[in-house]
Amino acid sequence: MTTAQGNGAGAGPLRTRAPGWTDLLRTAEFRPVLAAHLLSLLGVVVSEVALSVLVYGLTGSPFLSALTFALGFLPYLFGGTLLAGIADRHPPRRVLVLCDLLCAACAAVMALPATPVPGLLFLRVVLAAVAPVFAGTRMATLADILGEGELFVLGRSLLRMVSQSAVLIGFGAGGVLLTLVSPRGALLVTVATFLLSATLLRLGTRRRPARAPAREERTSLLRHSLGGARRVLAHRPTRGLLLLFWVPPFFTVAPEALAAPYAAQLGVGSAGLGLLMCAMAVGTIAGELLAGTLLSPASRARIALPLAALTLLPLVAYAAGLGLVTSLLVLVVTGAGSAYTLGVDRWFVDAVPQELRGRAMTLQTAGLMTLQGLGMALAGAVAELFSARAAVAGAGLLGTVCCALLALDVHRTRARTKGCTAPGGRPKGETGRDRHVTGR
């Protein structure tokens, strides 16, 4: 992935260029992973829309309809802690394919006319419990395919951008689809997307052995999962990086959670609501795309902590009583701040030993989704007492203080612990992060 820029006949060291998006897309195994990611995401979003409509149609209950969305967050904590060991105990391709097949089976049962509402909600919980195991395994496998350097950072960034785009497209596509077929018919589309994803992963990626040492297979899954989480969280540098992934999104969900009441306050109708729901995702995609294209790896690392500290600050402007256009600009700028993750991604994969990587990535996903769910609930509670505008501005102010303190702590910890041990108790140089594995 490097090009030498000659400066004479062997005079001086070779200079290398940072890998870019084209290098990423040339990696043979990454392309099916990217396509599978898009398919499974679209399937999940369509299923959420279809299931919400189906449950409301069967019960007439707004609460149960909303619960189908909430159940997409709550089981992440269970799956990401108690089941995390699956990501390291078994060959990763097998885990990914079986997760997709299990999700396809759940969606197929949901589509059956005989499945009652409690069964639909239970299957929704199963889907959500499987999701962090799948996501953590996929992210750990990404480091095997792309190596542990800048290609991994770009690959992970691209998957995040695809996630944001899939949500925007998926909700629209789900709405259109439901004008053509019944909710149970739309769930069959979800079955197809999961099956296609499983096929791409099975045929497009190669088999790799389990990451965990053989001796750990003799321990129970629960002990293996919780033991990995303890090792990751007990290591202060890694714990700080996890919090950098978790804390900013805990606050940034406030505008999304309160978009409907805020749009009502502005009097902008459903069109304005749709723009408010999309603006931050647009900013996120633009920020990561520009950072990955225009900035060098060193520059992305330098801005990571300042950007993490300030990414929520624009939301404080909600206190000034913004109109629709200025609110949209604030949300786009706030979303663009998520580009800080390109720097943190590299630090995180460097900090975690290979045999812990699946569990660490699963724990990261579980914490992220759980805290976003809690953040939405907390934003709603604050808005009940004050207003949507005040709740968003408060999230911006309190979030900025928390993120600034966290960024300062990570900076000090990184400065103190360079050359210290990784979560597995071994010198950081033994984690295998210096090996460049292209996975071609």
Quick structural summary:
The chain is mainly α and 440 residues long. The chain has helices spanning 21-26, 30-59, 62-70, 75-82, 86-89, 92-110, 117-146, 150-180, 183-204, 221-234, 236-257, 259-266, 269-294, 297-310, 324-336, 341-351, 357-385, 388-417.
Give structural notes:
This protein is mainly alpha-helical. The protein has two domains: 22-148 and 166-213, Up-down Bundle (Growth Hormone, Chain: A), CATH 1.20.1250; 220-413, Up-down Bundle (Growth Hormone, Chain: A). It is built from 18 helices and no strands. It has helices at residues 21-26, 30-59, 62-70, 75-82, 86-89, 92-110, 117-146, 150-180, 183-204, 221-234, 236-257, 259-266, 269-294, 297-310, 324-336, 341-351, 357-385, 388-417. Helix 2 packs antiparallel against helix 7. It is globular, with a radius of gyration of 22 Å. The relative contact order is 0.15.
Outline the secondary-structure elements.
Elements lengths: L20 H6 L3 H30 L2 H9 L4 H8 L3 H4 L2 H19 L6 H30 L3 H31 L2 H22 L16 H14 L1 H22 L1 H8 L2 H26 L2 H14 L13 H13 L4 H11 L5 H29 L2 H30 L23
Helix pairs in contact: 2-3, 2-7, 2-8, 2-9, 4-7, 4-17, 6-7, 6-9, 7-8, 7-17, 8-13, 8-16, 11-16, 11-17, 11-18, 12-13, 13-15, 14-16, 14-18, 17-18
Q: How does the overall form come out from the CA principal axes? A: globular
Strand portion: under 5%
Distance between the termini: 11 Å
- Would you tell me which CATH topology of the largest domain applies? Growth Hormone, Chain: A
Average predicted local confidence, pLDDT: 80
Number of strands: 0
What is the CA-atom radius of gyration, in angstroms?
22 Å
User: CATH superfamily membership of the largest domain, which one?
Assistant: MFS general substrate transporter like domains
Per DSSP, the total helix count is 18
What's the story with the biggest beta sheet?
none
CATH domain class of the largest domain: Mainly Alpha
Low-confidence stretches: 1-15, 425-440
Order of helices and strands: HHHHHHHHHHHHHHHHHH
